[in-house]
Amino acid sequence: MNIGEAAKASGVSAKMIRYYESVGLIDPATRSEAGYRVYSENDLHVLRFIKRARTMGFPMERITVLLGLWRDGDRNSAEVKKLALGHVVELERQIAEMQAVADTLRKLAATCHGDNRPHCPILDDLSAEHEAPARTPKRRRA
Amino acid sequence: MNIGEAAKASGVSAKMIRYYESVGLIDPATRSEAGYRVYSENDLHVLRFIKRARTMGFPMERITVLLGLWRDGDRNSAEVKKLALGHVVELERQIAEMQAVADTLRKLAATCHGDNRPHCPILDDLSAEHEAPARTPKRRRA
DNA sequence: ATAGGGCTTCCCATCATGGGAAGGTCAAGG
DNA sequence: CCTTGACCTTCCCATGATGGGAAGCCCTAT
Predict the structure, then answer these.
(1) What's the Å distance between residue B10 CA and nucleotide D9 C1'?
(2) Is A42 an 8 Å CB contact of chain B?
């Protein structure tokens, strides 16, 4: 099948399929006489794999490794597990960060009247000096 | 003070200060005779405001609005509150999404032996067909 | 044969950020 | 006074993943 059909069937846009090929995430597709990329069922499988992993938020780099493991029949499931759990840790870190921000904002918003008066603790907080960013004590590096 | 000092004092890199100026987020700095950008305490305040808001994960667009409100002595605190809570909702949505992914991965990892054998339910899941991506039923749009 | 749609490559834009080059400026020290 | 080195300026390029669009070739149905 051509790239358009493969795109529809895999949920990966034609643009992205070409991009994945260009950066070496997937092997160059075989070409028809006219130079059209031709995809097999197996190629589709790979595209769906990538699609799913992207949806899961795996960065391309990790997907490259996952794909390698997937293709490697002799892989060690421990490696896959480690990769997956590593991603979980990363997600948890990000979640905690966002949670903290959301909490702060919720608290600030709770103390903001939210009426037609201008005073607003939210703006007060944003404009207040928070921990000074890496204050270099005069000497530029010391 | 010059841009380097302002950068150090605000935690916003000189690069980004120039960028913010170029996209109109902050007013063009006044210039010295030699063309150097010169910053006042008030400019620093603005930069710190932006820094803090970025750290909170506010997108630039929303920061533009926040800055406007901050500068507007006649603002309506309700607007600020709405903006902040809107951001909270957005954060919550993202958190929920990531949580779902993390849960899925944790479950999959729990069923993966994680030993030197190749079988791995994580890879199985990634390569399985999940909900078909917007399957267009033959007619390209109908 | 012609139209239309699909395919190709190539370039550009995004968003926020950093890297780096080429060149001007300033302050300190010999 | 001149050199040195740190600073500043602008301009271009790159990122990562994605989309938009142009110019031009190809295929199929009418």
Answers:
(1) 21
(2) no
